[in-house]
């Protein structure tokens, strides 16, 4: 089995020399175990902050994959079955079955299995529960999402449209703005090239925002909070603009906006809805099958390119979900 390890904790943006490819032989299977081969891997922003909190230097990088059972000494996991696993950046691994999630039984033949790591997987569920449960969008509401062309953001905007809202999205390139228009966003802007975030936000929705799905934090959040409508709802999903900071930065003080606009702002980690994942996944798949939810994947070929894909995603090279294919 080949694996990518994190040689040292990242300082600032991750660099090629922070990763090392290692190879080791796996032992023969014991009763109750299965051998799996990864076919698709996911690289996600959480790996940047969580690597600091959860990994030691030299550990295999964390992460999930879609993997196929190659050999089985556990009748519950037959050879040829596909599972979503959380085994890290590794080509092959042995599991006792704990934590292996089968693809839903109604998985359509024509859908790529990699969607279980994207639109019909963790990022899709993040968009689904974060938006619907915390922002509580009503028909006619204006929903703002940043990193809108990414795995989570692109689903947030489309669910907002399904619910009859106006969707406003920001992203970091003009290609991404084109993509957002294609998937139905009403208003889009490039946060890197606008002369003022406040002006861009005002222009996109002169009356302000009912819901704000926050993926970025920092200066964007400072500007967006000021444009909220009274009783606006903010779901804090991510803060990617701050993940590489080693010293916490301070921005304008936001309490007056939260106070006088009577905003509700709540952070979340998607696993809080673990019990409801089947419900969310069923609905996401249904929308995908009906063509109401479009997905886009940014595919990198070759396990050897995993660090490059991860570093590229953090820099914004991806449109839609960043996936690595064997
Ligand atoms: P994306 O597919 O959106 O990829 C990350 C994107 O972030 C890049 O493509 C880039 O797009 C944007 N970005 C990078 N740096 C900056 C910056 N400094 N300012 C603004 N945008 C930046 O990733 P995901 O959809 O997987 O994740 C989006 C967010 O959701 C992240 O913050 C992540 O941590 C969070 N998340 C939270 C979960 C939870 O349970 N709370 C679960 C899953 C994700 P661009 O070109 O537009 O800059």
UniProtKB/TrEMBL annotation:
<dbReference type="GO" id="GO:0006693">
    <property type="term" value="P:prostaglandin metabolic process"/>
</dbReference>
<dbReference type="GO" id="GO:0005737">
    <property type="term" value="C:cytoplasm"/>
</dbReference>
<keyword id="KW-0521">NADP</keyword>
<keyword id="KW-0007">Acetylation</keyword>
<dbReference type="GO" id="GO:0003677">
    <property type="term" value="F:DNA binding"/>
</dbReference>
<comment type="subunit">
    <text>Monomer or homodimer.</text>
</comment>
<feature type="domain" description="Enoyl reductase (ER)">
    <location>
        <begin position="12"/>
        <end position="324"/>
    </location>
</feature>
<dbReference type="Pfam" id="PF00107">
    <property type="entry name" value="ADH_zinc_N"/>
</dbReference>
<dbReference type="InterPro" id="IPR036291">
    <property type="entry name" value="NAD(P)-bd_dom_sf"/>
</dbReference>
<dbReference type="InterPro" id="IPR011032">
    <property type="entry name" value="GroES-like_sf"/>
</dbReference>
<keyword id="KW-0560">Oxidoreductase</keyword>
<dbReference type="InterPro" id="IPR020843">
    <property type="entry name" value="ER"/>
</dbReference>
<dbReference type="Pfam" id="PF16884">
    <property type="entry name" value="ADH_N_2"/>
</dbReference>
<keyword id="KW-0276">Fatty acid metabolism</keyword>
<keyword id="KW-0963">Cytoplasm</keyword>
<keyword id="KW-0371">Homeobox</keyword>
<dbReference type="GO" id="GO:0032440">
    <property type="term" value="F:2-alkenal reductase [NAD(P)H] activity"/>
</dbReference>
<dbReference type="InterPro" id="IPR014190">
    <property type="entry name" value="PTGR1"/>
</dbReference>
<protein>
    <recommendedName>
        <fullName>Prostaglandin reductase 1</fullName>
        <ecNumber>1.3.1.48</ecNumber>
        <ecNumber>1.3.1.74</ecNumber>
    </recommendedName>
</protein>
<dbReference type="InterPro" id="IPR041694">
    <property type="entry name" value="ADH_N_2"/>
</dbReference>
<comment type="similarity">
    <text>Belongs to the NADP-dependent oxidoreductase L4BD family.</text>
</comment>
<dbReference type="InterPro" id="IPR045010">
    <property type="entry name" value="MDR_fam"/>
</dbReference>
<keyword id="KW-0597">Phosphoprotein</keyword>
<keyword id="KW-0443">Lipid metabolism</keyword>
<keyword id="KW-0379">Hydroxylation</keyword>
<dbReference type="GO" id="GO:0047522">
    <property type="term" value="F:15-oxoprostaglandin 13-reductase [NAD(P)+] activity"/>
</dbReference>
<dbReference type="InterPro" id="IPR013149">
    <property type="entry name" value="ADH-like_C"/>
</dbReference>
<keyword id="KW-0644">Prostaglandin metabolism</keyword>
<keyword id="KW-0238">DNA-binding</keyword>
């Amino acid at each position: 089995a080949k694996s990518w390890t994190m040689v040292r904790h990242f300082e600032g943006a991750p660099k090629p020399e922070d990763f090392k490819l290692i190879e080791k032989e796996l032992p023969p299977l014991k009763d109750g175990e299965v051998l799996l081969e990864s076919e698709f891997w996911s690289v996600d922003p959480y790996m940047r902050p969580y690597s600091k909190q959860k990994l030691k230097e030299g550990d295999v990088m964390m992460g999930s994959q879609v993997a196929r059972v190659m050999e089985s000494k556990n009748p519950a996991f037959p050879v040829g079955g596909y599972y979503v696993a959380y085994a890290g950046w590794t080509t092959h691994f042995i599991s006792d079955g704990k934590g292996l999630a089968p693809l839903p039984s109604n998985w359509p033949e024509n859908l790529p299995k990699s969607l279980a790591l994207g639109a019909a997987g963790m990022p899709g569920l993040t968009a689904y529960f974060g938006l619907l449960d915390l922002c509580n969008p009503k028909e006619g509401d204006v929903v703002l999402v940043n990193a809108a062309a990414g795995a989570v953001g692109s689903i947030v905007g489309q669910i907002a449209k399904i619910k009859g809202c106006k969707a406003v999205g920001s992203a970091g390139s003009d290609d991404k703005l084109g993509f957002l228009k294609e998937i139905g966003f009403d208003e889009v802007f490039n946060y890197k090239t606008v002369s003022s975030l406040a002006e861009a936000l005002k222009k996109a929705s002169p009356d302000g925002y009912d819901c704000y799905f926050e993926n970025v934090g920092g200066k964007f959040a400072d500007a967006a909070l000021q444009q909220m409508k009274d009783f606006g709802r903010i779901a804090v999903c991510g803060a990617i603009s701050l993940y590489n900071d080693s010293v916490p930065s301070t921005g304008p003080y936001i309490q007056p906006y939260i106070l006088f606009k009577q905003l509700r702002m709540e952070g979340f980690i998607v696993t809080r809805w673990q019990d409801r994942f089947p419900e969310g996944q069923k609905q996401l798949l249904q929308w995908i099958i009906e063509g109401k939810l479009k997905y886009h994947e940014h595919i990198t070929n070759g396990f050897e390119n995993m660090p490059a894909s991860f570093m590229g995603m953090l820099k914004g090279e991806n449109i839609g979900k960043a996936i690595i294919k064997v």
